[in-house]
Structures are given as C-alpha cells and as structure tokens.
Design brief:
Rossmann fold, 16 strands, 2 domains, alpha/beta, six-stranded parallel β-sheet
C-alpha cells in the first residue's frame, strides 16, 4: 500500500494510506526515493488551507513497472517528476526526465524549484549582459540568481538576511546587496529586469522605481501577506512615471510540453512551442548536474516517516539550510 503526506488541519501533518489506479499504456510507476519540500508554499498551506491537502510537487522515483507502450525507459531508471509527497509515483512518460548519471538524488529534485524561474528566463524581454536584480535569496531566489548568471546576465541579488547573503556570496554571486539600490546611478534606470522572489511589496515598488524604461518587474514570489501599509498608489506612480512593465511570474505561462501540428490530431490541439515546462526542467537539471548551480552543503535530508516532526522543525526555523528533502527509504 502506498503512503502519502496529508495536511489534515492547521499545523497537522499525517502519513496516510494512498489510493492507487491502474497503470496506463504510456505510464511508468515505482517507489519514491526523495521528494522536495517547497517551504514557502507548503508552510503557507499548513497555516491555512482547504483540508485535507496533499502537498508536494517534486520527486525522484525508481522505475519498477512500465505500460505496454512505454519506450526508452527501463526498470531501474531514476526519473524526475512533478510528484507529491508519496511513497509511489505514477506518471506518463511525457512528464518524466531521466537523471544524469551520478547526480545525487537530493540535488536532482531541486531542479523542480529552479524551473519556476526558468519560465521568466524564457519569456523576459531582457537579453544576456543586461542588468538583472533578484529580490530575495530564499530557495527560489538563490536558484533564480544562478540561472540568470549562467545565461550571461549581470546579476545582483538583494537580501537583507546576513546568513543568506553569505551563502550567496560563497556560491559565486558577487553582487549581493541588503536592499534595492534606488537612486544609485550604477543601477537607477539601468536595470532591465527585476525578479521579485520575496513577495514583499516594498521590493516590488523599489523594483518599479529602479528599472529602465520598459524594464520588467516580474512577481515570482507569492505575496502571502502584507508586510507594510504602503498604498497601491505608490505602485501605480512608479509604474506610470518609470514606464515599467509589472507582470506575473506565473510559471505555467509556457506549455507543459511542446506539441507539433498533426492533421489527424488537429482537434486535440498543438502549440509548436520552442520552450516548455519540461524543457525548462531539463535545463535546470542539466545545470545542476554540471555544477553550474552550486548545491553542495545547502540541502538537509530527513526521513519522510515522521513528517510532523519535519514540518514542525521548518515552522520553528530549526532547518537552516535553504533546501529540505524527504528521504522515503523507510516508508
């Protein structure tokens, strides 16, 4: 019987039996090795949601069974998927990626969180060598800074927390500031893109003030709560007079996968997309595998068999490393 993590109420986490469904012709199934906790989203859900709630969206599993029409995947393959916190994963082969040889599982699963900002990389009007400001050096912001640095942008990371500043600098992000440098001539009107991963309204307003004409401010971080008493008028004024483009960082702006035009399947739709969620996930996975996104020493791995203790530790701030991974070996 499969098991899964379920939020059953505010602050309450349980490991429950999970239902199973027949294996489809193009599906693969197998035991979960690791899953990744997305702390911002999951702790917000744990503090208030529609229960019962089944969290998680990133997993690595080992193939044990394959549908009759599956090709290119064999028993024993390790696959990355957008799976929940459960002991068994089952996905269509279109929505899984093989892990590069030798890549640690706990690093591979972080690719899912990196892929959140890959959508912005795919859709922005900013071009390599442009100045990019990333606000917030939590897990998503840290990954975003490295993604854009790898792509050839001039990246500055804004983070008030000194511990996070130190982690960013040690990882190779040279320009780390405690606040958005509004008024600094090196930045003011020179920034092509601000990626807000903090969810803080002050960072967004400051971002709108500092971008160049028609520069973008992209909201990647979820604004779970108000941090200030600032008025919307200040945002409107900054956008209007700085000619800023303020938009969502919605990661599903691109298709999940590309689908070419086929006459016989016309009514099932096509997109001919050059970029997709799956191609972005592959990019993140490749860059992690080649060491272009440093993760050594930044991951805490804990057993999935005691999920209440894990989430309690996260809520209390007792897990200080940026990334928390659940190991399903004992479930």
């Amino acid at each position: 019987m499969a098991r899964e993590i379920v939020f059953t109420g505010v602050g309450k986490v349980e490991l429950r039996d999970a239902s199973s469904i027949p294996l489809g012709l193009t599906e693969v199934r197998g035991p979960t090795r690791v899953t990744l906790i997305s702390p911002g989203t999951e702790l917000a859900w744990l503090n208030g949601g529609t229960y019962p709630l089944r969290p998680g969206y990133a997993a690595v599993f080992e193939v044990e069974e394959s549908g009759a029409d599956v090709s290119g995947i064999v028993k024993g393959d390790l696959l990355l998927c957008m799976g929940a916190h459960r002991s068994v994963q089952q996905f269509d082969q279109r929505y899984v990626l093989k892990l590069p040889m030798g890549l640690p599982l706990e690093q591979a699963v972080v690719a899912r969180l990196a892929a959140v900002s890959v959508t912005t990389l795919m859709t922005t009007t900013a071009r390599p060598h442009d100045k990019v400001l990333v606000c917030g050096a939590g897990p998503v912001g840290y990954l975003a800074a490295h993604l854009f640095r790898n792509a050839g942008y001039q990246v500055t990371l804004v983070e008030p927390n000194e511990q996070r500043q130190a982690i960013a600098r040690q990882s190779g992000i040279a320009n780390v500031l405690p606040s958005v440098p509004v008024g600094d001539p090196q930045y003011d009107g020179q920034v092509a893109l601000v990626i807000d991963c903090s969810g803080h309204e002050q960072a967004v307003i400051d971002g709108c003030k500092i971008v160049r004409k028609r520069g973008e401010v992209v909201l990647v971080g979820v604004p779970w709560k108000a941090h200030t008493a600032l008025l919307a008028h200040e945002v409107m004024q900054a956008v209007f007079f700085k000619f800023a483009v303020l938009r969502s960082g919605w990661e599903w702006e691109v298709p999940i996968s590309s689908r070419g035009f086929v006459w016989e399947e016309l009514y099932e739709g096509y997109n001919n997309a050059a970029h997709s969620t799956m191609s972005g996930l592959q990019l993140a996975l490749d860059w992690i595998a080649t060491g272009k996104i440093p993760l050594h020493g930044l991951i805490t791995t804990v057993g999935a068999e005691t999920p209440q203790a894990v989430y309690d530790a996260l809520l209390k701030g007792e897990i200080s490393k940026p990334f928390a991974v659940l190991d399903w070996a004992k479930v």
